[in-house]
Amino acid sequence: MKSENYTELSPEELFYLMALTRVQRLGSVGIRKLLQQFGKAQEVFRASLKDLAEITGTLIAENIKIFDDFHLVENELKVCEREGIDILHWFHPEYPFRLLHISDSPVILFRKGNGGHPHNRMMAVVGTRKMTPYGKQFIEQFIRDLVPYNPVIVSGLAYGVDIEAHKQAMANGLITVAVLGTPVHKVYPGVHQAEADELLRKGGAIYSETWSSEKMDPNFFLRRNRIVAGMTEATVVVESARKGGALTTAEMALSYNRDVFAVPGRTTDTYSEGTNHLIKTEKARMLTGVDDLVWHMNWPKPEEENKRRPVQRNLFPELDDDERRLMTFLAERGASHADVLAVELNWPVSKVNNVLLMLELKGVVQALPGRKYELV
Predict the structure, then answer these.
(1) What is the percentage of the chain residues whose pLDDT exceeds 90?
(2) Using CA atoms, how far apart are residues 230 and 101, in angstroms rounded to an integer?
(3) What is the second-level CATH architecture of the domain 114-297?
(4) 0.90 cut: is pTM over it?
(5) In what side-by-side order are the strands of the sheet with 152-155?
(6) Domain with CATH 3.40.50.450 in the chain
(7) Nearest 10 degrees: CA dihedral of 344, 349, 354, 357?
(8) Which of 162, 217, 362, 367 has the fewest beta carbons under 10 Å from its own?
């Protein structure tokens, strides 16, 4: 979702956008529809009950009209200022762009730390809280072998596989990002505060959509899982029993058309039942090492990362309106990721891919490693 009118929100508009997220039973899908209709969050609160009901139904429309918890927004703004927390929203230039492609993306996302890596390769590493020595050994080797490809490692800072993924990323000099079910300044579990502090010092970030005024709820961790799945291009499940949060994350990633990988284990091992099942049902690709991931993701070898594919340029190509628009964007912004083009142009990914293909065939653009494109 992208709108030129919302690239920079005024403090007042941000206030009302945050307030919309506190309206009972009004989710991100409903907020998206309201903004498309009324243009601004403040106008939503000014709209008539009748006009609101036509979009949200009577119950939610009434909840909007009786909403009077604006003090929650005021308090949250104070907390964010005091704790050094960034407030990202759908129209913020540092909002993780992959999240924009999922229908239930958070309207408001809180962040501590560095926001300079939203367009990097980002991959989730998740699994059971009861990690076995087998899982620990796999993570150590896997992340060590990932270093030449320089991905950002995303996980949930929980016990077991999550915290091990964060630790190994930091030990090997990779950026790592944590997504919490709790507010960003209230690390859970508390014993991982040291790792949270370290990842921030080393250029990582902590994200959450949970407000400081919200009471703990198990559903917050399901919300966390969807962010992990939505902000990454691939999810790796290292170990999991037949049921668990990691499998939920994998299912969410599949629903977002993201790649899912699972580490196989012995058929007798409890914490390989979930990963083996993902592979058996063809919901995940089997992952035995980095080579499997690199091959499926079509990542270029490190030594080829900066090579250019020669293209014969057509000096006078015939372009349609869409092709000219994309070409103009690349001329102004330079080399860009295909997903970024989709967000900035407000086009479906499939349309971006088709237009890029035609421009390549006409000798106007060339593909770079990592699904980036530039003018020839």
Answers:
(1) 75
(2) 8
(3) 3-Layer(aba) Sandwich (3.40)
(4) no
(5) 86-89, 108-113, 205-208, 176-179, 152-155, 122-126, 234-237, 259-262, 285-286
(6) 114-297
(7) 70
(8) 217
Kindly list the distances between the CA atom of residue 222 and the CA atoms of 156, 181, 199, 232, 295, in Å, as whole numbers in the listed order: 11, 8, 23, 16, 30
What are the tokens at 130?
């009861």
pLDDT digits (tens, 9 = 90+) for 196-221: 999 999 999 999 999 999 999 999 99
Q: Work out the number of other CB atoms within 10 angstroms of the CB of residue 125.
A: 30
Q: Give φ, ψ of 240 to 5 degrees.
A: -165, 140
267-315 pLDDT tens trace: 999 999 999 999 999 999 999 999 999 998 878 777 665 554 544 555 5
Residue ranges, CATH 1.10.150.20, the chain: 4-92
Give the model confidence (pLDDT) of 329-350 as tens digits: 998 888 888 888 888 888 877 7
Cα 372 from Cα 85, distance rounded (Å): 31
* 321-375 under CATH 3.40.50.300, yes or no: no
In the chain, CATH 1.10.10.10 covers 321-375
The DSSP output letter for 243 is: S
Q: Which CATH superfamily is 4-92 part of?
A: 5' to 3' exonuclease, C-terminal subdomain (1.10.150.20)
